[in-house]
Design brief:
Length: 928
C-alpha cells in the first residue's frame, strides 16, 4: 500500500456529525432532518453549475443555523455523482485544522489526488496552491469545473486584526475553479470574499426563514420516535417555536429532554433561542466547582483534551471525572481517538467557547492559561506524541495569555524549541507567534518586547533560507531532524541577530543553545547589507524588471523576464498569485487606484489589462511596432499611456483601442508618468530628454534637456508640480513641471540610475541603480537619508507603500526585496572632520557626542542640532579612541602620537576574509 500523502486529513467523523443527530440509525433518521433545505441546496447548485465566472459562493448565518450541515449535505450529494470533492472543515480546537498553512496543504493534497498530473513535488509551500490551481484550470479546459469546499472560515486561527484568508485561499481564482465557503455574518473578513464577487446566501435573511423552520420541524418529527411515551404535541411545538429556526437549539434540547422523565418534559422549561439555552446549561453545570474548572480549561485550551489530561491539570479524583462527563457533556463534543488514541473533549461550538470565556472573565482565563503552560505545554516534553505537538503549537501563546513574559521569552529563545516549531509547525507561523508576543508584551516589559520583535524579524529576514531547510510535507512522527538542520537554524538566527546589533555577549546570555551544538557564527560584523532590509520575495526564475505597490500597502506586483507577473503579500512574504499570458519578458506594470486591475507591458509588443481578483485578461493592447518599455494609467483608470522602443507613446482607452500616437522623441521611449489630474504626461527617452505632453490636445508641451546620457525613468510628485528623472549619467534631476527648469540635481550613485519613486507625502524620494543599491533622498535638500544595500545585482525598480513606511525593489538577482523605510533612514549627518573618523562616544545624558579622527582633531557635537559645539586640537597624529567620564564633564583621548612601533596596531590586512568563529566560544578560531 502506498504511503499516505502528506497533508491529507480524514474529515469523515466530523462530516457524519452534521448528517446524523441523536441515537437513531435508520436511513430515514439520517436524512429526514434535511427537510426544507432543498431550496438552499438548489440555490447553491444554480450558482456552481451556472456561468463559469462564479468563483466564490459563501453561506453565512448565525451560530447553530446549520451552515456546516448544508455544506456536508452538498458534499455528500456531489460526491455521490462525481467522486471526491476537495474540502477542509476548519475547527478551532481540533489538532491544527484551524492553522492557515495546514488548511492550504490539506486542500492542495486533495486536489493533487484528483489531478495527479498537476502535482509539482518541488513546489514551495507558499506557492503550491497557486501553481496547482493554475495547472488544474488549464486541464479543465473551457467546460470543466472544480469546486473546493471550506467550512468555518470564522474559526481560522489569526492574530487580532489579521486577515488569515489570503494565507490559504487564492487571491486570484483561475477560470473553472470555485470555492464554496461558510462563515458567520459577523466575521470581520467577510468583505475580502465579497470584494471578489462572492455570491452570498445568508440563512438569517427572511427569505430563508421558512427553510430554517422546516429543518427544525423535520428534526423534531424524526426525533419523536426516541420518546416513550411519545412527546406531547404541545411540547414538540414549543420546542420548534423556541428554536427560532436554529438547528443546534433543537439538537441540544432533544439531547437534554430524552433523558428526562415524561412528567419533566414540559414546554415551559424550554429556553427561547440558542444563547438563553446555553446559558441555562452553563448555570447548571458551572454550579459544581470541578465542572466549572474543567470547562474553563477546555475554553482556554487550543486543542481538544482527554479526560485524563483534564484530571491531571485540575487535580480531580475519580468521582470528579465522572461528574464532569455527566454535567458538562451538553456543552461539549467528543473527539474519538484524538488525544493519543483516546477520546478528547472540546466545546461543542466555537460560539459556546466564546460564551464560556465571557462568563468566566479574563482573570480566570488567565489562570487557566498558566495551568496549561505549566502542566501541559512544557518544553522539552516528556513524550513525542500529542503533548509534544501541543507544546510546539501552543506553549508560547499560553505563556503570553498568562502574562508570563519572562517565561515566554525563555521558551522562545530555546533554539531546540524554535527549530522544532519552525520545522513541524511552520516558519511563518513561528514568526507570527513571536510578533504577537512582542506586541502583547510591549506595555508590560519593553526590553523583552524588543527581544521578541528582533527574533521575529530575524526569522522573517531568513525565512527564504529556513523554507529551504524545512521542505514541505514534513509530518510529525517522521524521523527526527538531522543535526545539520538544527545547527543551520541556530546559525541563521544567531548571525542575523548579530548583524542586527546584538553583541556576542547578549546572544550567549539570551539564546539557549543545546549542549554540544557547534556552528559557524559571526565574530565581527562587516556587512554591506542594510539593516532596513526586512524580507526577500523569492519566486521569479529570471531578472525582475519592475514592481508596483497596491493601494492597500500590503501587497505588491512584480514583473519579470520569466514572462510572468506575481502578486506578493509584503507582510508575510508569500506569493499570492501568478499572472501568465505574455509571450516575452514583462517590462512594466501599474495598478489602478482602486486596486482592482493590473496593467502590464511586454517585449511581445503588447499591453494587457488584468482583473486582479480573477486573473482574467480584460483587454490586450496591440499597436506598438516594437517592445513596450513602460505603462501608466490615468487616476480614473479610463485611459492608458504606454512607451515603446519604437520611439512613440500611445494613448489608449480601457478597451485597448488606440486614441492617439504621440511622436516627438528621436530614440526609444523608456518611461512615462501621468499627472494626478490625468490631463498631462511626461516621458523619458534614450535621446537624453524628457517631454511633457498635453493628453487633451495630444501634443508636446515642452522638452526637458540636461541629462548627458539616457533617461531611464521619470515620476511625478504627488502634487503634480514637479518631475523627477533618473538617468544613465548616474544622476537624478528634479524639474519644475510648469517651467521645465531643473530645480535640483541628485548625485551619489556610482552607476546608472535605473528607477525612482517619490514618497506619497512628497518629501522624499527613492532611487535604484546598477550599483546594486537604493538611496533615500530628501527632496527639499537633495541630501541622502540612507543607502540601502543588499541586492546582489542591478536594481531595476523601486516603489513606496502609501504610508511611506516600506520600499519595494526589483533586481536582476531574481528577487524582490522589502525594506523598512524608517529603519533605513539616516536621522542626521555629522560633517566636519577632514579625514577618517576613528571613534565616537555619546555622553551619559544623550545630548552630545565626542568623535575622533585621523585629522588629529576631537570634536564635540550637539546631538539635537547636529552641529559642532567645540573642536579640540593638540594631538600631533591620528586620534584613535576616546572615552567620557560618568559625569559627562571630561573626555579622555588616545592617539598615535605616543604609539610604540613594536606593539600591534590592531589594523586589519587589506583583502582578508571576514573573521569567523565557531559556537561554542571555546572552539573559536580566526579565518584569514
Amino acid at each position: 500500500m502506498p504511503p499516505k500523502q502528506a497533508g491529507l486529513i480524514d474529515f469523515t467523523a466530523e462530516r457524519q456529525r452534521h448528517v446524523r443527530f441523536g441515537r437513531g440509525d435508520t436511513p430515514e433518521w439520517r436524512t429526514s432532518w434535511l427537510v426544507g433545505r432543498d431550496d438552499v441546496l438548489a440555490q447553491i447548485d444554480s450558482w456552481l453549475e451556472g456561468p463559469r465566472d462564479t468563483r466564490w459562493v459563501v453561506v453565512i448565518g448565525g451560530p447553530g443555523m446549520g451552515k456546516s450541515a448544508i455544506l456536508a449535505a452538498w458534499l455528500a450529494r456531489r460526491e455521490a455523482k462525481a467522486g471526491k470533492v476537495p474540502h477542509h472543515l476548519i475547527r478551532s480546537q481540533v489538532a491544527d485544522w484551524d492553522q492557515p498553512e495546514v488548511i492550504a496543504e490539506s486542500l492542495a493534497a486533495q486536489i493533487e489526488v484528483a489531478f495527479p498530473e498537476c502535482r509539482d513535488a518541488a513546489a514551495k509551500p507558499e506557492r503550491r496552491m497557486i501553481e496547482l490551481l493554475s495547472q488544474v484550470s488549464k486541464q479543465l479546459g473551457t467546460t470543466g469545473r472544480l469546486v473546493v469546499v471550506v467550512d468555518g472560515l470564522d474559526e481560522t486561527r489569526a492574530e487580532p486584526g489579521e486577515n488569515p484568508l489570503p494565507r490559504f485561499l487564492p487571491h486570484v481564482v483561475p477560470l473553472g475553479i470555485c470555492f464554496l465557503c461558510a462563515t458567520r455574518p459577523a466575521y470581520p473578513h467577510l468583505g475580502w470574499l465579497e470584494a471578489r464577487g462572492a455570491r452570498r446566501l445568508n440563512l438569517d435573511d427572511a427569505r430563508w426563514a421558512a427553510s430554517n423552520d422546516a429543518v427544525v420541524r423535520g428534526f423534531w418529527q424524526a426525533a419523536a420516535s426516541e420518546y416513550e411515551p411519545p412527546l406531547s404535541a404541545e411540547t414538540r411545538d414549543a420546542a420548534i417555536a423556541r428554536a427560532e429556526g436554529n438547528v443546534l437549539h433543537a439538537v441540544m434540547v432533544h439531547e437534554h429532554m430524552r433523558d428526562l422523565r415524561a412528567d419533566q418534559r414540559r414546554a415551559d422549561r424550554i429556553p427561547r433561542g440558542l444563547r438563553e439555552l446555553i446559558g441555562e446549561v452553563w448555570k447548571r453545570a458551572a454550579s459544581d466547582k470541578a465542572v466549572r474548572e474543567g470547562l474553563g480549561l477546555l475554553c482556554a485550551a487550543r486543542d481538544a483534551l482527554s479526560l485524563d489530561v483534564l484530571a491531571r491539570l485540575a487535580g480531580w479524583r475519580y468521582e470528579e471525572k465522572e461528574r464532569f462527563v455527566r454535567d458538562a457533556l451538553a456543552l461539549l463534543l467528543e473527539e474519538p481517538a484524538s488525544w493519543a488514541g483516546t477520546i478528547a473533549y472540546r466545546p461543542r461550538h466555537d460560539w459556546v467557547r466564546e460564551l464560556i470565556a465571557e462568563w468566566l472573565g479574563p482573570e480566570v482565563l488567565r489562570a487557566h492559561h498558566a495551568t496549561l503552560a505549566e502542566g501541559l505545554a512544557t518544553w522539552p516534553t516528556p513524550s513525542a506524541g500529542a503533548e509534544r505537538q501541543y507544546a510546539l503549537r501552543h506553549a508560547l501563546i499560553h505563556r503570553v495569555e498568562a502574562d508570563e513574559w519572562a517565561d515566554a521569552w525563555r521558551l522562545a529563545a530555546d533554539m531546540s524549541f524554535l527549530e522544532a516549531k519552525c520545522r513541524e509547525i511552520g516558519v511563518y507561523e513561528t514568526e507570527i507567534d513571536l510578533t504577537s508576543a512582542a506586541e502583547r508584551c510591549r506595555s508590560h516589559d519593553a526590553v523583552v518586547a524588543t527581544r521578541f520583535g528582533d527574533l521575529a524579524r530575524a526569522l522573517g529576514r531568513e525565512s527564504h533560507w529556513l523554507y529551504s531547510i524545512f521542505p514541505s510535507g514534513w509530518q510529525a512522527g517522521q524521523p527526527a531532524v538531522s543535526p545539520h538542520a538544527l545547527e543551520a537554524t541556530m546559525a541563521l538566527v544567531w548571525n542575523r541577530l548579530r548583524r542586527s546589533g546584538w553583541s556576542a555577549e547578549d546572544l550567549g546570555a539570551q539564546l539557549r543553545i543545546p549542549s554540544g551544538a557547534a556552528f559557524l557564527c559571526v565574530r565581527q560584523v562587516v556587512s554591506r547589507e542594510s539593516a532596513a532590509l526586512v524580507r526577500n520575495l523569492v519566486g521569479h526564475s529570471h531578472w525582475v524588471h519592475t514592481c508596483a505597490v497596491m493601494p492597500d500597502g500590503r501587497r505588491a506586483v512584480s514583473a519579470s523576464q520569466d514572462q510572468t507577473l506575481r502578486l506578493w503579500d509584503l507582510v508575510t512574504g508569500r506569493m499570492l498569485a501568478i499572472f501568465e499570458g505574455h509571450s516575452e519578458r514583462v517590462t512594466a506594470c501599474a495598478v489602478t487606484h482602486d486596486g482592482r486591475r493590473l496593467l502590464s507591458a511586454s517585449l511581445d509588443r503588447t499591453l494587457k489589462l488584468w482583473d486582479l481578483a480573477t486573473g482574467v485578461v480584460l483587454a490586450t493592447f496591440v499597436g506598438h511596432t516594437s517592445w513596450v518599455n513602460a505603462c501608466a494609467m490615468t487616476p480614473d483608470g479610463r485611459r492608458v499611456v504606454s512607451a515603446s522602443l519604437d520611439g512613440t507613446l500611445r494613448l489608449w482607452d480601457g478597451t485597448g483601442q488606440t486614441l492617439a500616437t504621440l511622436e516627438g522623441h528621436t530614440d526609444s521611449v523608456t518611461a512615462c508618468a501621468v499627472t494626478p489630474d490625468g490631463q498631462q504626461a511626461v516621458s523619458a527617452s534614450f535621446d537624453r530628454t524628457l517631454k511633457l505632453w498635453d493628453l487633451v490636445a495630444r501634443r508636446v508641451r515642452a522638452t526637458l534637456e540636461g541629462h548627458t546620457d539616457w533617461v531611464n525613468a521619470c515620476v511625478m510628485t504627488p502634487d503634480g508640480q514637479q518631475v523627477v528623472s533618473a538617468s544613465h549619467d548616474r544622476t537624478l534631476r528634479l524639474w519644475d513641471f510648469a517651467t521645465g527648469r531643473v530645480g535640483r540635481i541628485f548625485e551619489g550613485h556610482t552607476e546608472p540610475v535605473t528607477a525612482c519613486a517619490v514618497t506619497p507625502d512628497g518629501h522624499g524620494m527613492v532611487s535604484a541603480s546598477d550599483d546594486r543599491t537604493l538611496k533615500l533622498w530628501d527632496l527639499s535638500t537633495g541630501g541622502v537619508l540612507a543607502t540601502l544595500e543588499g541586492h546582489a545585482n542591478w536594481v531595476n525598480a523601486c516603489a513606496v507603500t502609501p504610508d511611506s513606511r516600506r520600499v519595494v525593489s526589483a533586481s536582476n538577482d531574481q528577487t524582490v526585496k522589502v525594506w523598512d523605510f524608517t529603519a533605513g533612514r539616516i536621522r542626521a549627518s555629522f560633517e566636519g572632520h577632514t579625514d577618517w573618523v576613528t571613534a565616537c562616544v555619546v555622553t551619559p545624558d544623550g545630548q552630545a557626542m565626542v568623535s575622533t579622527s585621523r585629522d588629529e582633531k576631537i570634536k564635540l557635537w550637539d546631538l539635537t542640532t547636529c552641529r559642532v559645539r567645540a573642536t579640540l586640537a593638540g594631538h600631533t597624529a591620528s586620534v584613535t579612541a576616546c572615552a567620557v567620564t560618568p559625569d559627562g564633564q571630561h573626555a579622555v583621548s588616545a592617539s598615535l602620537d605616543r604609539w610604540s612601533p613594536h606593539r600591534s596596531t590592531g589594523r586589519s590586512r587589506s583583502g582578508t576574509s571576514i573573521p569567523v568563529a565557531h559556537w561554542p566560544p571555546s572552539k573559536a578560531t580566526a579565518a584569514g
